[in-house]
Amino acid sequence: MSSQELLAIPMPAGGRMDIYSGVARLSGKLWASCHRPPTGQSKTAVIIVHPSSNFLGHYALAPLAERGVTAVGMNTRYLANDSALIVENCVLDLGEGVKYLREAGFERIILMGNSGGGGLVSLYQSQAENPTITSTPAGDPPDLTAADLPPVDGIICAMAHPGRAIVYTQWLDPAIKDETRPFERDASLDMFDIRNGPPYSEEFMSRYRAAQVERNRRITRWVRAQLETASSRTGGAVNDLPFVVHGTAADPRFVDLTLEPSDRPPGTLWGETYSANFIPATLGHLTSLRSWLSQWSIDDSNANGPEHLSRVSVPVLVAYGTADNTAFESHARALYEGVGHAERELYPIAGADHYFTGNPGMVAAFCDKVVAWLDEHDLR
Fold first, then answer.
1. pLDDT recorded at residue 105
2. pLDDT recorded at residue 17
3. Which one, out of 115, 140, 290, 376, has a CA that is 20 to 30 A from the CA of 356?
4. Nearest to 166 by CA among 297, 338, 329
5. Average pLDDT, the chain
6. Burial class of residue 232, CB neighbours in 10 A (0-12, 13-18, 19+)
7. Keyword annotations for this protein (predicted)?
């Protein structure tokens, strides 16, 4: 049986007040759950990470350790609260995790970005190998070209989408005309109006996707204006504000299974699509001006997985589930095709949903694949 320990990783300075908990700020710690093999001494560690999800109990940790690989479920400073998340700070956090494990004696480190972690690990390795980002999209620190970001030895994107801003824009409800009145809607762009479908026509989908991008850009224009207003009216004392975004689970693929057909069931990770589109638990309803630019703006966010994978030199494995109703095959292919070298693999997992729900056998098969891939590339 594998052993488990809690790692306390130093948290780097972020430059702004973006964690509400004073206890968390003063502790100066990032927390990770380390699972070691039952026998032998593993020289390879796999860090499983997401920008904000709690991965201390990730389903792959124990199975990977049982297969002889040390597995670390790492949390960023934005654990369970992405309302003020700055992607560039997540990169710094991940860098501290890599350094911690290097100093602990691990010779090979692999980053596994699960779900929203795919864009993060791609961005990390890109900036570790060839740093280009000198500030956040709002012009704030950190300067990643001056950061200590040790490169890793391999990248795994598991059940991942290309990046938060990309998938978020694909989910934005374009029928919302007034950001304060989500139920005053443009019927011609309303996926929940039965006159439009499902099934949805190519003409409707073309207009719909274009309107989603325009809504994202409309919010971005408002965000930049608000930043200027807040600064000018407070003499620079206020440099950020919170706000609400309504309608963030309105991808027609959730209800029309003829769009990008797969084994998936209808609906979202949060249940039936119409209610999920409005309830607070779903993606990106609560954010701040600066966080919007960093993680949700389609034109500004740096967390574009395919773009950054084109700049990495290490082997890349992209795994996806054929029954996933969140990270679609097209997302996996975008990541795979973004890799600019031959050491890449696209691996479908037949029948797997986003969390391998109720399928420990599929988890085992996935972890078998990870270990075989590590062996194939001499990473274990």
1. 96
2. 64
3. 376
4. 297
5. 96
6. exposed
7. Hydrolase, Plasmid
Residues constituting the chain: 380
Q: What is the mean pLDDT of residues 57-81?
A: 96
DSSP string, 289-349: HHHIIIII-TTT-S--HHHHHTT--S-EEEEEETT-SSS-HHHHHHHHHH--SS-EEEEEE
In 173-246, DSSP assigns E strands to 176-178, 181-185, 242-244
- Tell me what percent of the residues of the chain surpass a pLDDT of 90: 93
Can you give the three-state secondary structure of 13-71, one letter per residue?
CCCCCCCCCHHHHHHCEEEEEEEECCCCCCCEEEEEECCCCCCCCCCCHHHHHHCCCEE
The domain locations on the chain are 3-163+301-376, 167-260+272-296
Q: Tell whether omega for the bond before 51 is within 30 degrees of 0, i.e. cis.
A: no
- How many angstroms from the chain centroid is the CA of residue 91? 12
Buried b (16+ CB within 10 A) or exposed e, 167-204: bbbbbbbbbbeeeeebeebeeebbbbeeebbbebeeeb
Q: Which residue has the tokens 């692999």?
A: 110
Name which of 376, 308, 335, 34 is nearest 151 in CA terms.
Answer: 308
Distance in angstroms (rounded) separating the CA atoms of residues 16 and 24: 14
Strands 70-74 and 44-49, how do they pair?
A: parallel
Two structure tokens written together for 226: 């608000």
Write down the pLDDT at residue 67: 97
pTM assigned to the model: 0.96
**What is the C-alpha separation between 79 and 338, in angstroms, rounded?**
28
Look up the CATH superfamily of 3-163+301-376. Answer: Alpha/Beta hydrolase fold, catalytic domain (3.40.50.1820)
pLDDT at residue 20, rounded to an integer: 65
How high is the pLDDT of residue 24? 72
Residue 366: CB atoms within 10 A of its CB come to 23
Residue 16 pLDDT > 80: no
Token readout for 59 is 């389903």
